[in-house]
Amino acid sequence: MNLDKQISALQAVRIDIADRNRTLTFRELEGRLLRTRLTFELRTGRRSADGKDWAIAPISSNDAAEKAAKVHPDYIEHERETAQQTYERDVKYAEAETLVFSLRVALDAMPESETVQHATS
After folding, report:
1. Rounded to an integer, what distance in angstroms lies between the CA atom of residue 115 and that of residue 113?
2. pLDDT one-digit tens code per residue, 32-61
3. How far apart are alpha carbons 63 and 82 in whole angstroms?
4. How many domains does the chain have?
5. How far apart are CA 78 and CA 22, in angstroms?
6. What pLDDT digit, counting tens, does each position of 70-121 carry?
7. What is the pLDDT of residue 5?
8. Cβ within 8 Å of residue 6, ≥6 positions away
9. Residues 6 or more apart from 1 whose CB is under 8 A from it?
10. How far apart are CA 96 and CA 58, in angstroms?
11. What is the DSSP string of the chain?
12. What pLDDT, on the 0 to 100 scale, is given for residue 48?
């Protein structure tokens, strides 16, 4: 692969990483909101969206409700998906590192006159 293609590939991977980072940042916010909503629902014993009763009694302590929200199946699923997306982003980081290494090797192997010419074009 020539240098221009390698640089373009690296740029594409880094843009993909930036997009994934943005998505993970929004997921972190969604996770906080989900945990807050679940804590509220557990404290009141009611679902906030549809108003239907839960099958459990309200949890009187805020600390206990927060702990219960952290192990709620909805929150666990959200965290599981976030972990998968983090892994996929980290794979892209590894791909970017490989491309950077390949570029450095290619530049080191080039005669100095070609390196200067490529840098000015």
Report:
1. 6
2. 999 999 999 888 887 655 555 556 678 889
3. 24
4. 1
5. 16
6. 999 999 999 999 999 999 999 999 999 999 999 999 988 888 766 556 566 6
7. 93
8. 99, 102, 103, 106
9. 9, 102
10. 49
11. --HHHHHHHHHHHHHHHHHHHHHHHHHHHHHHHHHHHHHHHHHHTB-TTT-PBPSSPPP--HHHHHHHHHTSHHHHHHHHHHHHHHHHHHHHHHHHHHHHHHHHHHHHHS-HHHHHHHHH-
12. 52
User: What's the token pair of residue 63?
Assistant: 């600390």
Q: Which residues pair with 53 in a beta bridge?
A: 46
Spell out the residues 6+ positions from residue 82 whose beta carbon is closer than 8 angstroms to its own: 24, 27, 28, 31
d(CA 53, CA 38): 14
pTM for the structure as a whole: 0.77
The first and second tokens of residue 21, run together, are 């980072």
pLDDT top residue among 1 and 79: 79
**Domain that residue 116 falls in:** 3-120
For residues 88 and 90, give the distance between their C-alpha atoms in angstroms, rounded to a whole number: 5
Q: Determine the residue type at 34.
A: L
